[in-house]
Amino acid sequence: MTSGKQIINRFEDFAPLSLAWERDPSGLQLGNPDKPVKTVLVTLDVRPEVVTEAEAIHADMIFSHHPAMFRPVHNLDLRVPQNAMYAQILKDDLLVYAAHTNLDRVQDGMNDWLAEALGLSQVVPFINEGEGANMGRIGLLPDKIRLDAFVEQVKAAYNVKGLRVVARDLDRLVQKVAILGGDGGDAFNDAKQAGADVFITGDVYYHTGHDMLAADLPVIDPGHHIESIMKGKVATLINEWADAEGWDVKAIPSKLSTDPFTFM
């Protein structure tokens, strides 16, 4: 039998926890990593509906990008929905593991996958933090394209129905694209200094949007949920490792959308 610890160790060979930001609670979240694992559910977020999905497919492990326990728990009052979810996870004997900023920073990880979905070439990091920890990617589109047309490409690439654009001129041509998954608005100056024609990131704040306009850097905000691209990518990695190692393990991408926002 393959243990959760074997899967975790192999993943951390790929994306070491040393790459995670100091205050980022990546790694083991809940459960016993020594338990046998045959089925892994890969998800962006750990929400009650995801736990129900894990129960339905008889998963032994949930592998997420966003930590289930992002903030410290001060009590276990089960009237609180998040606490009730933790209790259900433990009742189901599920192992929960999260790879957050280590997956964001590693080569061939989250931001490379986001760049790949856009068809960018000559992709390199644009925030170099040293020792293999590189946040964000910048690369080239095949040709120059009007910003408004590129916005439609972004919507199609990430399967979003709507997004926000910070730009004075939608007719301008863009080719060099910087992308940073998640909440990366503070990195817009890094993207500009790297020579980006346009920057893609999520959760742009109102006042930061004004600063972006003043800097004359077009920014596309397709939301945080585009990071769900990791579900298929991580499941593929685990299944490839299982084949190579002879593990009787199958990883399955979650079919649920955990995006809290609905575009009307």
CATH architecture of the largest domain, by name, is 3-Layer(aba) Sandwich
The proportion of strand residues reads 15-25%
Shape: globular
Query: Taking all residues together, what is the mean pLDDT?
Result: 96
Subunit structure: Homohexamer.
Family: Belongs to the GTP cyclohydrolase I type 2/NIF3 family.
Organism: Lacticaseibacillus paracasei (Lactobacillus paracasei)
InterPro entries: DUF34/NIF3, DUF34/NIF3_sf
Account of the 3D structure:
With 264 residues, this protein is of the alpha/beta class. It folds into two domains: 4-100 and 227-253, NIF3 (NGG1p interacting factor 3)-like (Udp-n-acetylmuramoylalanyl-d-glutamate--2,6- Diaminopimelate Ligase, Chain: A, domain 1, 3-Layer(aba) Sandwich), CATH 3.40.1390.30; 107-222, NIF3 (NGG1p interacting factor 3)-like (Udp-n-acetylmuramoylalanyl-d-glutamate--2,6- Diaminopimelate Ligase, Chain: A, domain 1). The protein has nine helices and eleven strands. Strands 5-6-8-9-10-7 form a six-stranded mixed beta sheet. A five-stranded mixed beta sheet has the order 1-4-3-2-11. Strand 3, helix 3 (81-91) and strand 4 form a beta-alpha-beta unit. The longest helix has 16 residues, at 230-245. It is globular and about 55 Å long. The mean pLDDT is 96.
Structure keywords:
9 helices; 264 residues; alpha/beta; 33% helix; five-stranded mixed beta sheet; 2 domains; Udp-n-acetylmuramoylalanyl-d-glutamate--2,6- Diaminopimelate Ligase, Chain: A, domain 1; globular; six-stranded mixed beta sheet
